[in-house]
Amino acid sequence: MSVWHAFTQPAAWTMFLLGFSSGLPFLLVSYTVAIWLRKHGIVLKEITMIASAGMFYALKFLWAPLLDHVRLPGALGRLGQRRSWLLLAQLAVMGGLLAMAKLTPAQLPLFVAATLVVAFFGATQDIAVDAYRIEIAPTATQGALVATYSLGYRIALIVTGAGALILADHLDWPVIYFVFALAMLVPILATLFAREPEVVRTTPHSWRAAMQLSVIDPFADFFRRYGWALASITLLFILLFKIPEQATVGGVMGPFYLDMGFTQTQIGTITKLWGVWIGIVGVFVGGAAVARWGAWRSLGVSMVLAGASNLGYLWLIAHPGNLVVLTVVISVENFTLGVLGPPIVAFLSSLVSRDHTATQYALLSSMVNLPGKVLGFFAGGIAMATGYGSYFMLTVVSIVPATLLFAYLWPRFSKDRPGDVAAAKEPSA
After folding, report:
1. What end-to-end distance do the CA atoms of the chain give, in Å?
2. What are the pLDDT digits (tens) for 149-158?
3. Which stretches does DSSP call E strand in 304-399?
4. pLDDT grade, residue 287 (50/70/90)?
5. Can you tell me the distance from the alpha carbon of 324 to that of 341, in angstroms, rounded to the nearest whole number?
6. In whole angstroms, what is the distance from residue 239 CA to residue 63 CA?
7. Alpha-carbon distance 15 to 9, whole Å?
8. Highest mean pLDDT, choosing among 72-81, 171-180, 349-358
């Protein structure tokens, strides 16, 4: 498929709106709500506990089987398996945001409950969107779908992050959350008018059969299709290849920028505004690469470039407080990470069986990010013990094991990308 056709297919722009829908609640239950709570006078300990509602996003694989095998009743169910769950999650997110706007932190217990509702159904929406994307188009066009999805997602992050803070200087926080709740109407309409993927699903006839189908089969299926050796090595590769990126997105980076002599305004402007837009450009380049060369080849090149981009921080250490150097380093890093995104999603999507789309993709995507959760606990200690320079060198070296595994897996995935044949049978609209 040509790059032009991949990006202009109707499914690509449906994914743009669904990406915006997925990105909208993420910061509203973490970073942004923490600022609202702080302004309201809530103590820091309680703020961090409330803002940890976003942990639902890391645990979404636990209830992903429901979205594969439980059919919603009534009018929702008539929309189909994917769109019914999508609409339910979107309506719940909208309702939760309206409740947060109405209750405000003045009614803290109920406000926290509303925040948890938004976080849970925001994560549920992510499961449904990922499954919908995989089933609606063949693997060859997944790069374009990921690119438009990421564009919508990142625009939502800008709006609910920097945009919300700017609005907060002129409007009350409840008004801001009310506006964001209404913004969910656009993706809700997109869901109503979208096409349901044509996938034949198995309906279990007993509780035991349901457990077998929804919990055991998704895991057994992966090892059955690839064999224990190939499946295990592939999972190890998935765990390792994003470590360099994850090592520079945790709590260690804020203190590092401050220690380099930059102000909070400089850090926010360059890393959260400029960097996001450069990342969007990278996402579209990555999507085009997948459309042109396939997921596996694009993944190999982009993961090495993204890992090597951390060398830029050594240059920054040699030029502390230099805004030009910071801008160049952030630009290179965000661009290469943006390019890496579509090949990752396209490759993981190609591994997924159409019988367990939501469950297997949620599990694989959680495995990709698992090392980052672990690194978050130890990154600061490592940087203090070794110094920033050695820490960043370690992050670059950490790409070596993944690169060796990539070379080992090359004969399997470079010629026969799993999922291509099955995916090609799905509708492309």
Report:
1. 14
2. 888 988 898 8
3. none
4. confident
5. 26
6. 21
7. 10
8. 171-180
